[in-house]
Structures are given as C-alpha cells and as structure tokens.
Amino acid sequence: MDYERFDRLHNRCCGGFAWCVKDICGIVCVIMTWLLIFFAEFVVNRVILFPLGLVFPIFSVINIGIFNLIAFLAFASHLRTMLSDPGAVPRGNATKELIQLNYKDAQTLFKCSKCCSIKPERAHHCSVCQRCIRKMDHHCPWVNNCVGENNQKYFVLFTLYIALMSVHALFLVLYNFSQCVKNEWRDCSPYSPPATIVLLLFLIFEALLFAIFTIIMLATQLAAIVNDQTGIEQLKKEKPNWEPKTRWKNLQAVFGRFSLTWFSPFTQPRFKSKFNTHFYSV
Hints:
With 282 residues, this protein is mainly alpha-helical. 53% of the residues lie in helices and 8% in strands.
C-alpha cells in the first residue's frame, strides 16, 4: 500500500491544501455553528442596531463596528481551527525498515496499532480523525476537528471571541428591550412587536447558552495550557514525565512571543517538536 500518497490525502480537501475531517456529525455541528453566528448577526444588526441608528447614530455605528469585528474574528478562528492540521502523525511509518534506519536499539518506541504509526511523546489516537494527534486535548464536533498542538491557539481564540460576541449581544438586547418598552414598541424594529420579541428572546437564550459554555471552555483551555497538561492527560491522570516549564513559557509555546498576533487567527507561532523529523517524509 502506498502509505505516502494515502497519508498525503487522508483528511485532506482542496487538493490537499486544507485539513478536512469527513465526519457527518461534525459537519452538521459546523453548519449549526455558522447558522447561529449568522442569526446573531442578523438580529443584532437588522433588529437592534439599524433602528437605533435613527435615534442614536454614534452609539449604533460604534456597536456595529465592534460587534461585526468580533463576529468576523470568531468566524475566522473557527475556520482556522477546523481547516488546520491539529498535529497529525503520519500513518504507516512504523515499518521495520524505517525504525532500523532512524532509531537506535536503546530507544523506546510506542506504536499505534490503529494507524500503524510511531507515537511521539504525548500523542493520542483520535477515533474520529483516525490519526494520532500530538498533544491532543480533545476532539470537538463544533469545529469538526481535534484540538492539538498545531491548532490550539485558534480554538482558544474561537472560544474567546464567541464569549465576547455573546456578552455584547446580551448587552444590546437588554438595552434594546428597555428602549422598546420606554417607547411602547413604536419605531422599535422593522418587524411587528410579537416577531421582534420572539427574535430577541431567542437571541437572549442563544447568547446566554454560548456565553456560559465558551467562558467555561476558555478557562479550561487556559488552565490546561499554563499547567502544560492536555484534557486527555488530565482525564487519564497521566503523570508528567516531560521537562517542566514556567506558565509564561507554556503560554508562549501555544501563542508565540507576546504581541498583538496572540489575538489574530491569521498568524501561527512556530512549533518545536522533539519527534523525529525523518518520519514526516515517509
């Protein structure tokens, strides 16, 4: 079997350019995530801020800019998390010839029986991605991908921007409700009062749900990063046998040197791995 060609195309799309996990459940969750983001965009812009612009133009313009910027960054972070290789180990590289060629007899190797690969330290096999993932934290269906060494930054940014987006939406909904009640629902929305109330109530439910979920997830991810222990390692209660680093160094290992690029889903820090590079060109 041509493992090199198979590895190059496995979980890939767009001619091998992007990482794509072909999981139906994950794809459905991704579509739901996008629809919920677009719904929040519609209600905040069309139902809340555009009508408020007739009365409070400066307030409306500022909040339109802030909310849409956060929504754009959230969507971009989601795409980068979904389409980035999380740190997959090449399949089929655990052959006798390659092991004899690249490893010494005294070295201890771990072979994954499911994908026939040499497992580097702290790698775990994902049954959905069907690959071993370096520093795998968990598989998230909402991004249809594993969260691992190469895309954890984007996942943290996704949770951060969704949390900010949700809190901002809650503030705008409550403010809009107060204005509508004050004006007895006159010129409050381009839609009828019952339709407006339904849209606002659904947005409140969505924003509350996602604010709570993403804030908890964000805190969990940051705790895992600063303590240098992935979610799987915590669940399995694996004792760390790697060299300990300071919390600041652990943050830099995921986000790079501190700068505004920490908050950008369009930049990627350079990663250093002790895994034998010979096994990346099987």
